[in-house]
Amino acid sequence: MADERNPAEQADDVATRTVQVGSPDGLHLRPITLVTQKAAGYPCAVTVTKGDASADAKAMIQLLTLAAACGDEVTVTAKGPEARRAVDEIADLIAATNPE
After folding, report:
1. Which are the contacts of 59, defined by CB distance < 8 A and separation ≥ 6?
2. Among 4, 86, 88, 92, which is disulfide-ready with 78 (CB 3.0 to 4.6 Å)?
3. Is the pLDDT of residue 98 over 90?
């Protein structure tokens, strides 16, 4: 499973992490619900990117349009207060094989 952290992109208010989707069914409704709930708890802006497509991590429909399958690489980026913590928790959910 890929897990790439780029310290050069991690200022106090910006964090980025790339992971592979761990759920065998990809990012379907259940893991996306968990991601949006987690993202909503942070004051920072959080995006999830797959290829050229990006989605607001607080918007369920946008995340669904990424159509991220198991094994696909996605990048989680946050800008603002608590960015590092938000990125780590959301990336962990996306990488989990059975997110809860």
Report:
1. 36
2. 86
3. no
Question: d(Cα 38, Cα 17) in Å, to the nearest integer?
Answer: 16
Give, as one character, the DSSP assignment of residue 8. Answer: G
Radius of gyration of the chain (CA): 12
Rounded to whole angstroms, the Cα distance separating 75 from 98 reads 19
User: CB within 8 A of 15, min separation 6: which ones?
Assistant: 9, 77, 78, 83, 84, 86, 87, 88
| pLDDT-based confidence at residue 11 (cuts at 50, 70, 90) | very low
Spatial distance between the Cα atoms of 100 and 30, rounded to a whole number of angstroms: 9
Contact (CB, 8 A) for 83 and 13: yes
